[in-house]
Design goal:
By secondary structure, the chain is mainly alpha-helical. The protein has one domain. The protein is built from six helices and no strands. The chain is elongated. This is Vacuolar protein sorting-associated protein 53 homolog.
Length: 128
């Protein structure tokens, strides 16, 4: 809620945050909540853990899964078998969508989202 109220903090005029800002905040916080749910879930049995990851994170990939396993504090030996299981269970991308050029067509990365938020914050500061 604080993030949603951020554009009007310190302003004498109480107004609702722009819809685009609200959408970005809600999307980012929802993703963070889903990541926390996956990290806090038990990793045994591995098949259930991987299926839960795929279900909760719609833009799942092995790199993100690796980071989640690191956050869980699993040893590399445990991670390798779980990564292989994840690779097997991940839905296959449409043909031609594996190259780097297709990355620009996908949903924005968290870094791109945070960059957008920073730009928005700077814009808000200029207007205040």
């Amino acid at each position: 809620m604080v993030l949603l109220d951020l554009p009007s903090i310190g302003s004498q005029v109480v107004r609702k945050a722009p819809a685009s800002y609200t959408k970005i905040v809600v999307k980012g916080m929802t993703r963070a909540e889903m990541i926390l749910k996956v990290v806090m879930a038990p990793h045994e049995p591995p098949v259930v853990f991987v299926d839960n990851y795929i279900k909760l994170l719609t833009d799942c990939n092995t790199e993100t899964f690796q980071k989640i396993l690191d956050m869980k504090g699993l040893k590399r030996s445990e991670q390798s078998s779980m990564l292989e299981l994840c690779r097997q269970r991940l839905p296959t991308p449409p043909s031609g969508a594996e190259g780097p050029s297709s990355l620009s067509l996908m949903a924005p990365t968290p870094e791109q989202e945070s960059s957008r938020i920073r730009k928005l914050e700077k814009l808000i500061k200029k207007r205040l």
